[in-house]
Design goal:
about 200 residues, mainly alpha
Length: about 200
Protein backbone atom coordinates (compact mmCIF):
# COMPACT_ATOMS: atom_id res chain seq x y z
CA UNK A 1 0.00 0.00 0.00
CA UNK A 2 1.45 3.43 -0.91
CA UNK A 3 2.39 5.72 1.95
CA UNK A 4 1.26 9.35 2.00
CA UNK A 5 3.66 10.48 4.74
CA UNK A 6 6.30 12.28 2.66
CA UNK A 7 3.83 13.68 0.14
CA UNK A 8 1.84 15.17 2.99
CA UNK A 9 4.97 16.65 4.63
CA UNK A 10 5.88 18.25 1.30
CA UNK A 11 2.72 20.34 1.68
CA UNK A 12 4.27 22.27 4.56
CA UNK A 13 5.10 24.83 1.88
CA UNK A 14 1.38 25.57 1.57
CA UNK A 15 0.82 26.29 5.27
CA UNK A 16 1.12 30.04 5.91
CA UNK A 17 2.45 31.36 9.19
CA UNK A 18 1.40 34.53 11.01
CA UNK A 19 -2.17 34.25 9.71
CA UNK A 20 -3.54 36.99 11.97
CA UNK A 21 -0.87 39.49 10.95
CA UNK A 22 -0.43 41.57 7.83
CA UNK A 23 2.82 40.32 6.30
CA UNK A 24 5.13 42.33 4.07
CA UNK A 25 6.76 39.02 3.09
CA UNK A 26 4.65 35.87 3.60
CA UNK A 27 6.34 32.94 5.32
CA UNK A 28 5.34 29.29 5.04
CA UNK A 29 5.96 26.36 7.33
CA UNK A 30 8.73 24.88 5.15
CA UNK A 31 10.70 28.13 5.22
CA UNK A 32 10.26 28.42 8.96
CA UNK A 33 11.28 24.80 9.58
CA UNK A 34 14.46 25.17 7.54
CA UNK A 35 15.46 28.35 9.36
CA UNK A 36 14.64 26.77 12.72
CA UNK A 37 16.83 23.76 11.84
CA UNK A 38 19.76 26.02 10.89
CA UNK A 39 19.36 28.00 14.12
CA UNK A 40 18.99 24.87 16.31
CA UNK A 41 22.19 23.52 14.78
CA UNK A 42 23.98 26.82 15.45
CA UNK A 43 22.76 27.05 19.05
CA UNK A 44 23.93 23.54 19.89
CA UNK A 45 27.31 24.18 18.23
CA UNK A 46 27.62 27.32 20.40
CA UNK A 47 26.56 25.29 23.45
CA UNK A 48 29.18 22.64 22.75
CA UNK A 49 31.99 25.02 21.78
CA UNK A 50 31.55 27.75 24.36
CA UNK A 51 29.74 26.00 27.21
CA UNK A 52 31.47 22.61 27.17
CA UNK A 53 28.34 20.75 26.10
CA UNK A 54 28.04 17.46 24.28
CA UNK A 55 24.78 17.86 22.37
CA UNK A 56 24.27 16.63 18.81
CA UNK A 57 23.82 19.58 16.43
CA UNK A 58 22.64 17.13 13.76
CA UNK A 59 19.92 15.77 16.06
CA UNK A 60 18.87 19.31 16.98
CA UNK A 61 18.58 20.23 13.29
CA UNK A 62 16.57 17.09 12.55
CA UNK A 63 14.20 17.67 15.48
CA UNK A 64 13.72 21.25 14.28
CA UNK A 65 12.92 20.14 10.74
CA UNK A 66 10.02 18.09 12.09
CA UNK A 67 8.97 20.33 15.00
CA UNK A 68 5.88 21.69 13.21
CA UNK A 69 5.15 18.67 10.99
CA UNK A 70 1.74 17.98 12.61
CA UNK A 71 0.62 21.36 11.26
CA UNK A 72 0.17 19.79 7.81
CA UNK A 73 -2.96 18.31 9.41
CA UNK A 74 -3.84 21.00 11.96
CA UNK A 75 -2.72 24.18 10.23
CA UNK A 76 -0.70 26.83 12.05
CA UNK A 77 -2.79 27.92 15.01
CA UNK A 78 -1.87 31.53 15.85
CA UNK A 79 0.01 31.97 19.13
CA UNK A 80 -2.61 34.26 20.74
CA UNK A 81 -5.20 31.55 20.16
CA UNK A 82 -3.00 28.59 21.12
CA UNK A 83 -1.92 30.13 24.42
CA UNK A 84 -5.14 31.97 25.28
CA UNK A 85 -5.83 29.65 28.22
CA UNK A 86 -4.39 26.52 29.79
CA UNK A 87 -7.55 24.65 28.80
CA UNK A 88 -7.19 25.67 25.15
CA UNK A 89 -3.47 24.80 25.18
CA UNK A 90 -4.23 21.32 26.58
CA UNK A 91 -6.94 20.78 23.98
CA UNK A 92 -4.59 21.84 21.19
CA UNK A 93 -1.92 19.48 22.56
CA UNK A 94 -4.41 16.62 22.19
CA UNK A 95 -5.12 17.68 18.61
CA UNK A 96 -1.38 17.83 17.90
CA UNK A 97 -0.83 14.39 19.49
CA UNK A 98 -3.61 12.99 17.33
CA UNK A 99 -2.04 14.54 14.23
CA UNK A 100 1.33 12.97 15.12
CA UNK A 101 -0.30 9.56 15.55
CA UNK A 102 -2.08 9.97 12.23
CA UNK A 103 1.15 10.93 10.46
CA UNK A 104 3.00 7.98 11.97
CA UNK A 105 0.16 5.71 10.88
CA UNK A 106 0.87 6.72 7.28
CA UNK A 107 4.34 5.18 7.45
CA UNK A 108 5.12 1.52 6.91
CA UNK A 109 5.46 -0.23 10.27
CA UNK A 110 9.22 -0.75 9.91
CA UNK A 111 9.86 3.03 9.55
CA UNK A 112 7.69 4.30 12.39
CA UNK A 113 10.34 3.83 15.07
CA UNK A 114 12.69 6.21 13.26
CA UNK A 115 10.09 8.97 12.92
CA UNK A 116 8.14 8.66 16.18
CA UNK A 117 10.80 10.50 18.26
CA UNK A 118 10.93 13.29 15.66
CA UNK A 119 7.19 13.89 15.73
CA UNK A 120 6.53 13.68 19.45
CA UNK A 121 9.00 15.88 21.31
CA UNK A 122 8.43 14.79 24.88
CA UNK A 123 10.78 13.46 27.46
CA UNK A 124 13.62 11.11 26.88
CA UNK A 125 17.22 12.22 27.04
CA UNK A 126 16.59 15.14 24.71
CA UNK A 127 15.29 17.67 27.28
CA UNK A 128 18.12 20.21 26.82
CA UNK A 129 18.18 19.62 23.08
CA UNK A 130 14.44 20.32 22.93
CA UNK A 131 14.99 23.57 24.83
CA UNK A 132 17.41 24.60 22.09
CA UNK A 133 14.90 23.62 19.38
CA UNK A 134 12.28 25.74 21.17
CA UNK A 135 14.81 28.59 21.40
CA UNK A 136 15.55 28.24 17.68
CA UNK A 137 11.80 28.37 16.98
CA UNK A 138 11.51 31.61 18.99
CA UNK A 139 14.67 32.98 17.36
CA UNK A 140 13.16 32.33 13.93
CA UNK A 141 10.05 34.24 15.04
CA UNK A 142 12.21 37.12 16.29
CA UNK A 143 14.07 37.28 12.97
CA UNK A 144 10.77 37.29 11.05
CA UNK A 145 9.53 40.18 13.23
CA UNK A 146 12.75 42.12 12.64
CA UNK A 147 12.47 41.58 8.88
CA UNK A 148 8.89 42.83 8.89
CA UNK A 149 9.87 45.92 10.90
CA UNK A 150 12.73 46.61 8.47
CA UNK A 151 10.20 46.44 5.64
CA UNK A 152 8.21 49.19 7.35
CA UNK A 153 5.56 46.87 8.78
CA UNK A 154 4.92 47.94 12.36
CA UNK A 155 2.36 45.14 12.79
CA UNK A 156 5.11 42.90 14.22
CA UNK A 157 6.60 45.28 16.82
CA UNK A 158 4.78 43.77 19.81
CA UNK A 159 5.54 40.23 18.62
CA UNK A 160 9.21 41.20 18.24
CA UNK A 161 9.39 42.44 21.83
CA UNK A 162 7.61 39.32 23.09
CA UNK A 163 9.93 36.97 21.17
CA UNK A 164 13.04 38.77 22.43
CA UNK A 165 11.73 38.66 26.00
CA UNK A 166 10.93 34.93 25.70
CA UNK A 167 14.45 34.22 24.44
CA UNK A 168 16.05 36.21 27.26
CA UNK A 169 13.89 34.40 29.84
CA UNK A 170 15.18 31.03 28.59
CA UNK A 171 18.53 31.87 30.17
CA UNK A 172 20.48 29.69 27.76
CA UNK A 173 24.06 30.94 27.34
CA UNK A 174 24.23 29.81 23.70
CA UNK A 175 21.12 31.89 22.96
CA UNK A 176 22.73 34.89 24.66
CA UNK A 177 25.85 34.43 22.51
CA UNK A 178 23.71 34.28 19.36
CA UNK A 179 21.69 37.37 20.30
CA UNK A 180 24.84 39.38 21.00
CA UNK A 181 27.08 38.11 18.24
CA UNK A 182 24.94 37.08 15.27
CA UNK A 183 21.53 38.74 15.55
CA UNK A 184 22.75 42.31 14.84
CA UNK A 185 23.74 41.26 11.30
CA UNK A 186 20.07 40.60 10.51
CA UNK A 187 19.56 44.39 10.66
CA UNK A 188 22.13 45.03 7.92
CA UNK A 189 21.47 45.33 4.17
CA UNK A 190 22.95 42.77 1.77
CA UNK A 191 25.83 45.01 0.67
CA UNK A 192 27.10 45.21 4.26
CA UNK A 193 26.69 41.46 4.77
CA UNK A 194 28.83 40.58 1.76
CA UNK A 195 31.67 43.08 2.31
Amino acid sequence: MPSHFFALLSRMKYIPRWALMRNAAPENLSEHSLETAILAHALTVLHNTRCGGKLSPERAATLALFHDAPEVLTGDLPTPVKYHSEQLRAAYQQVEDSACARLLGMLPEDLRGAYAPLLSHRGGGDALLLRYVKAADKLSALIKCMEERKAGNLEFCCAEAAARRALEEMRLPAVEYFLAEFLPAYEQPLDQLTN
